[in-house]
Structure formats: C-alpha cells, structure tokens
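Progress note, sequence design subtask.
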C-alpha cells in the first residue's frame, strides 16, 4: 500500500490524529453515506457502516484516482449488555448513557473497511474487520455526570464519552486496544494493509 494515496472517509479529528501519529500521509474526504445499517450485532453493524462510508467515497473517485488510491472508512459504537449506543441526540440522552455505563464494563467496537483497486480490469478489493475492547468505568455521581455532559465533550462521541478527554478521570480498566476506543485500531489497520503490499 506504500504506493497508494490514502484517503480517510471520516471527519473524525481523532482518526486523523491516529493516522498522523504513525506517519501516514493521507487526505480526508468525508463520506455522505447514511449511517443506517440492518444489523443489530455490534461487530456486524460497525463493519457494515465502515464499508458504507468507504464505498461512498471510493465510488466518487475518477477512474485514475481509483487506480492510485486506498480509501479507509471506520465506525465506532459502544455496546452495554448487548444494547448498542451511538452518539447521543441531546444532553439528556448523554446523561442516560453515562448513568448506564458508570460502575460497569462495556464494549467498544470499531469496524474498519479499506477499498482499493489493484487492477482496473477487476473488481475493487474490499477488506473489512472489527476490533473489540472492554472498558470498565468507575462509579460516577449524578453531579459528576452532569458536570461532564456540561463540557459538551460527549455530544459527538459513541457512548457519550471521550476516553482521550476529560472522561479519562473515570476509566478504571481497559482490556484490549486503547486506540480502538479512541476510534481507530491503528496497529491492526496497518498490519492488515501490509498484507496487500
């Protein structure tokens, strides 16, 4: 993939930071794909949504761009006892999500899809995978939850928190890839891409 132009199909500043952190050159083209998929199983849902995002951007590329580009799409959800949490619609929903998470263990799933065309005579290659991380949250008082929501930080985050932000004060334990919780399992992505060099 060294010779491919990397395109990130995501507006997430956290995903941009993670790609930059490992020295990857890339450009951002935000996907206009609707974030609705039919699966209710978290691992399948995030893979399906990441594929939708990557495909939406790849399909808009010119023939020449398709030959020289690799498009990465990603989607992250939080799952608590099998119930999927996306981004909160408002402050009250953020409070309710955090009330559910505090004092318990939940799972963070990120699905990643990358698409590239090795040969224009063949169909594009589409590779999808997911990563799961268990996260344990300390008990939180109502006051702590309200105070955190008031910062505005939870509003564009799955599960209503940012592990790399102020919510770090409430993280008890992580079992799995920390970067996966931030929004992109960057080590796994790099290793998967290397298979196609």
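Output:
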């Amino acid at each position: 993939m060294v010779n491919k132009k990397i395109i990130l199909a995501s507006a997430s500043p956290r995903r941009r930071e993670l790609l930059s952190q490992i020295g990857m050159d890339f450009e951002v083209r935000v996907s206009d794909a609707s974030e609705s998929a039919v699966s209710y199983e978290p691992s399948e849902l995030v893979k399906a949504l990441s594929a939708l995002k990557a495909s939406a951007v790849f399909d808009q590329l010119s023939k020449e761009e398709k030959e020289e580009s690799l498009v990465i799409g990603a989607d992250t959800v939080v799952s608590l006892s099998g119930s999927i949490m996306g981004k909160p619609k408002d402050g009250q929903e953020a409070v309710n999500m955090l009330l559910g998470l505090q004092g318990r263990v939940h799972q963070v799933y990120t699905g990643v899809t990358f698409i590239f065309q090795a040969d224009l005579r063949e169909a594009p290659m589409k590779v999808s995978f997911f990563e799961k991380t268990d996260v344990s949250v300390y008990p939180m008082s109502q006051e702590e939850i309200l105070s955190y929501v008031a910062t505005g930080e939870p509003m564009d985050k799955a599960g209503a928190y940012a592990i790399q932000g102020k919510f770090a004060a409430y993280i008890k334990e992580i079992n799995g890839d920390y970067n996966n919780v931030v929004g992109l399992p960057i080590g796994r992505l790099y290793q998967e891409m290397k298979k196609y060099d």
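The beta strands are 5-8, 26-28, 69-80, 83-85, 105-116, 125-137, 171-175. Work on this subtask will continue into the next period as scheduled.
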